Amino acid sequence: MTALLPLILILPLGGFVLTGLLGRRFPEDAHRIAIWAVVAAWVVASLVVVMTLFHVSPFGPAGAGLKLWTWIPAAGFSADMGLYADPLTACLLIVVTTIGMLVHVYSIGYMAHDPGRWRFFAYLNLFMFSMLLLILADNLLLVFAGWELVGLCSYLLIGFWFPRRSAAEAAKKAFLVNRVGDMGFALGIMAVWTQVGTLNMQDVFARIAGVPHEWQIAIALLLLCGAVGKSAQFPLHVWLPDAMEGPTPVSALIHAATMVNAGVYLIARCNPIFVRAPEVMVVVAAVGIFTAILAASIAFTQTDIKRVLAYSTLSQLGYMFASLGVGAWTAAIFHLMSHGFFKGLLFLDSGSVIHAVDGEQDMRKMGGLARKIPITYSTMLIASIAISGVPPLAGFFSKDEILGGAFKNGFLWVWAIGFVVAGMTAFYMFRLIGMTFWGPSHVDPKVEHHVHESPPTMTWPLILLAIPAVFLGMVIGFPPETGLIHQWLEPVFAASIQYPISMGGAPETAYNFFGIDGALAIGTTALVAIAIVAAWRLFGVNVPALGLKAEPRPDRVREISARRGLSFLYNGSFHKWWFDDINNKLFVEWGGRLAAAAFWFDRTVVDGTVNGVGSVTAGAGMRLRRVQTGRVQNYALGIAFGLILMAAGYLYLAVR
Amino acid sequence: MSGSLDSYLILSGLLFAIGTFGFLGRRNAISMLMSIELMLNAVNLTIIAFGAFVKPLNVHASVIALIVIAVAAAEATVGLAIVIAIYRNKKTPLVDEYDSMSE
Amino acid sequence: MPIGQTLPFTAVRWDDILFVVLAVMLLGSALLVVTMRDIIRCGLAMIASFASLAGIYVMLGNPLIAATQVLVYIGAISILVLFAIMLTETKNAPSRLVFQTQAWVGAIAAAAIAAIITGVVLTTTWPSTGAVAWTATSDIATMLFGQYVLPFEAVSVLLTAAVVGGVLMARREPAAREDRS
């Protein structure tokens, strides 16, 4: 039965190989192999998930491992090609395979007119393989291999339309920024190897207690580096907004639902290491929540619909990191799952909108599309409500658990910032809805008359994704703290939840709706409601039936901020807080100068030395040549001097 | 002073040095040959001086000095003949000009 | 009238004065040989140095060698040199053509040689008897035709070769006969 695990991997890998080899010859049918591969993988993965979560042997809460072969059989160091599946893996599998399958189907319609489709589907399959490898791996080196592969796929897919210069550069930026994090990850793996002696994750977790505390902190920090890079947390967040240069299905799959979750998965998986380094947990929480508010503040002023969603992704990932940092492990995974669904839905919706207005991505040139593309509109509205955290949709339960966990574990500052960010999230999401779907139409007149709904291959995935966006929270997250998801993930995180208590912390209080938890939930909901109303007033549409009046003026935000001296905030937000400029100045310019200096050094000093040796030899030879004058009288002089030297030498020796 | 070997030896050393300077420093080939004669004479003086002051060497020194004089004469003959022959070719007795064998 | 060993009223011996005079003559004329511009005068100075050297030989108790010196060096070699000088017709050379460029270095070398020899001589204890021994000519003759007869004959062969060679080198090329065809 555990042979099902490698089957999950082989199917998309085979899809990639076959599509890559045959796709160029059969461009119209190229997608069929890929789709079937990923559907089959979904079926097998669902089987594994069901077996794991319902404790069907050999899968179960203790996890099932399968060693395929020894990958690196070196003396003193060995790494296996091994797979491992436990409930955490199952949760990730649900998200990855489901959203992957739906994105593949969506891409049939979205990429219908693109001549490079076969390449696209091949890369998508490769990406599925890489992500599944990352999730299913049982040792850190194999995780790293999957890690790098998803980075590669991200590069290939962001730069899919590589003739466009901005796309090529965005792909490079993504890869390079990822690389910075990967270096930390690699160092972390080396640290684990030197300190623990094995890379098999379960063995590492068993032995981590014996590692000196400074090394535990070091390993945790280095692994955090990798996670920060892959999940685009501050300061390595700069690549994600630019990654929107890729096609929308790519944004949906990689940069919303799967690849960026790899960092969260890594930290969640390595929770035994992190829980023993509480200092690093604080860093995780700080990084996460700072990213959350940073990204949310930038999303306020962006005009490209995909950029707003990208910053929203950054913000929600920040929430997940914060959740991991405060010790609410299950809440983070829960939010990962629900976010995957509704963010994936949002991106696919935005792709549908872009498709409808013929490629326009600037929200200022949209508006009033609600009646024209109803399916897209309704699914996007559902997803926005979900992400804002309105009960009883999915986002409410997961976000509330995070904020509750932060508050109850004593991280009040995390809670406070998270509270504010929840309101900001609601505001900018409804700003997006308002600018895109409500109000008068600012669409380009040439395009306006053929704004149409997307084909069924695109709308069916939207509808299918809307279902979990609505119901997922209620199904697995309710009742809070004892719902299904907690039961599933309890064996994975139990030790880490117990550990701080055994170290002298306070035990977790049970969920009490009529106590602190209820108060927090109501408070958050109230803030969200206020934010939605504010956004609606600024960007929304009149609803005469309810007697509600709105003044949609998209520029009103700028007017307000200019008037009240908040122009700095507006400008900062609009320019992404100048991080790209700082990076450009520091690394590109000064790095370029440093490189030029190093080049000068290499050319002048190093090459100069080498060439100098040669030229010194040649010069010396030329000068010594003049001793041979050809004139006998000079030779006679030489003889005389030789005679003198010999006599002097003899005398010197005789006198001594 | 005249009764000590050292003074004769020093005298011959100085004469030899003067001859060396002349050989190394003069441009005319015949001057160089004259300097060679001076050097040979200095050697002769050394030999005779040793012969005078060291009893067992007495007669031997004289014979050797005679032979040296004879050889010096022969060498001067041949050397001057060569200089004259070269002079006929090069029209100059200055050794600086005798460089047709170098490039 | 016998004169005393020393100069009257002083302790300076006649021998020493004679030695100094002859030594000064020798070194002085030798210096003139190597430094004078007119080469004929150099030849004459050489003759003077040979003569003073002969005097020193007499002081060393070797009249035969002194006589040979005069006969051979002054009588033959010097004349030969003067003939060669006149045959090569060196005019009064300008001063830059007298010494070579390396003359200064040569002077240094010569000074070094002189210094070394002087130093060695002064610091070595020679097995000297302290007095000049007079050499009898008959003893030289006995030695020359006895023990040293082989070098004697060899030298005569050498001289023959030198004469023949010198004549051969110095004569003019015979003019090519025109009626060879």
Number of strands of chain B: 0
Structural class of chain B: mainly alpha
Mean pLDDT of chain B: 90
What's the overall geometry of chain C? globular
The quaternary state of the protein chains shown equals heterotrimer
Mean pLDDT of chain C equals 87
Spatial separation of the terminal alpha carbons of chain C? 83 Å
CA-based gyration radius of chain B: 17 Å
Task: Give short descriptive properties of this protein.
heterotrimer; A: 656 residues; mainly alpha; two-stranded antiparallel ribbon; 2 strands; C: 181 residues; 6 helices; 0% strand
Mind explaining what this structure looks like?
The complex is a heterotrimer of chains A (656), B (103) and C (181). Chain A has 656 residues and is mainly alpha-helical. Helices cover 72% and strands 3% of the residues of chain A. A two-stranded antiparallel sheet of chain A has the order 1-2. In chain A, helix 1 packs antiparallel against helix 2 (30-53), helix 2 runs antiparallel to helix 3 (87-110) and helix 15 (329-356) runs antiparallel to helix 20. Chain A is globular and about 115 Å long. The mean pLDDT of chain B is 90. By secondary structure, chain C is mostly helical. Helices cover 66% and strands 0% of the residues of chain C. Chain C has six helices and no strands. Chain C has helices spanning 14-35, 39-59, 63-88, 103-123, 137-144, 149-170. In chain C, helix 1 runs antiparallel to helix 2 and helix 2 packs antiparallel against helix 3. Chains in contact: A-B, A-C, B-C. At the B-C interface, helix 1, helix 2 and helix 3 of B face helix 1, helix 2, helix 3, helix 4 and helix 5 of C.
Describe the structure concisely for a colleague.
The complex is a heterotrimer of chains A (656), B (103) and C (181). Chain A has helices at residues 4-22, 30-53, 87-110, 117-136, 140-158, 165-196, 201-207, 213-230, 239-242, 248-257, 261-269, 271-275, 278-299, 305-326, 329-356, 374-388, 394-408, 412-437, 445-448, 456-477, 484-502, 516-539, 556-563, 567-574, 579-624, 632-655; strands at 64-74, 77-85. Chain A is mostly helical and 656 residues long.
Protein topology:
The complex is a heterotrimer of chains A (656), B (103) and C (181).
Chain A: H1 4-22, H2 30-53, E1 64-74, E2 77-85, H3 87-110, H4 117-136, H5 140-158, H6 165-196, H7 201-207, H8 213-230, H9 239-242, H10 248-257, H11 261-269, H12 271-275, H13 278-299, H14 305-326, H15 329-356, H16 374-388, H17 394-408, H18 412-437, H19 445-448, H20 456-477, H21 484-502, H22 516-539, H23 556-563, H24 567-574, H25 579-624, H26 632-655
Antiparallel strand pairs in A: 1-2
Helix pairs in contact in A: 1-2, 1-4, 2-3, 2-4, 3-4, 3-10, 3-15, 3-20, 4-5, 5-6, 6-8, 8-11, 8-13, 10-15, 11-14, 11-15, 13-14, 13-18, 14-15, 14-17, 14-18, 15-16, 15-17, 15-20, 16-18, 16-20, 17-18, 17-20, 17-22, 18-22, 23-24
Chain B: H1 5-25, H2 29-53, H3 58-90
Helix pairs in contact in B: 1-2, 2-3
Chain C: H1 14-35, H2 39-59, H3 63-88, H4 103-123, H5 137-144, H6 149-170
Helix pairs in contact in C: 1-2, 2-3
